[in-house]
Amino acid sequence: MADQSERGDGGFTLWVDADATPREVRGLTMRTAERRRLAAAFVANSWMRVPESQFLRFVLVPAGADKADDHIVEKARGNDLVVTDDIPLAARLVEAGVLALNSRGEVIDSGNIGERLAMRNLMTELRSAGVQTGGPKEYGRADLQRFANALDRILTRIAKLGRG
């Protein structure tokens, strides 16, 4: 279980995989957590600034592959929400019963994680075979707005259930 410094008083924590989340999303998530008075933990293996707040925490994990992911999976619980663009992390969270949301406002759950993993693996294989895949489309204002709307809907639903 996460120590009290990383969990909210109501048992809800908004986790952010800060290594795999655009800066705009991190900023919006910080403002949202402050406004809604929710515990939010930003996990990364390199230092980043998080404003001083009773609601916001920065968790620095050791350098190394998947250290931030491992920390989030270990600490997050079924009533938490994790913001990440890391598909393998999202798969681990879904398996553990934790809701994941990507920076484009798409909920990642048991209904779509298989397809997302398969596509990620295919693209990885293509790149390793020398195929130019082009990467993801540029992150824009419409993406941030979709994320903001999805985050608001999820947090409102959680609050109505008395979990946040």
Question: What is the correct CATH architecture?
Answer: 3-Layer(aba) Sandwich
Query: How many DSSP H or I helices?
Result: 5
Give the number of domains.
1
Largest sheet: 6 strands, mixed
pLDDT averaged over residues? 89
Order of helices and strands: EHEEHEHEEHH
Radius of gyration: 16 Å
Helix content: 40-55%
First and last CA, distance: 17 Å
Which class best fits the helix and strand makeup? alpha/beta
Strand content: 5-15%
Question: Could you list the spans in which at least 5 consecutive residues all have pLDDT below 50?
Answer: 1-5
Number of strands: 6
Shape: globular
How are the SSEs ordered, and which strands pair?
Blueprint lengths: L13 E4 L5 H14 L3 E5 L11 E5 L6 H9 L5 E3 L3 H9 L3 E3 L5 E2 L4 H16 L12 H20 L4
Parallel strand pairs: 1-2, 1-4, 2-3, 4-5
Antiparallel strand pairs: 5-6
Helix pairs in contact: 1-5, 3-4
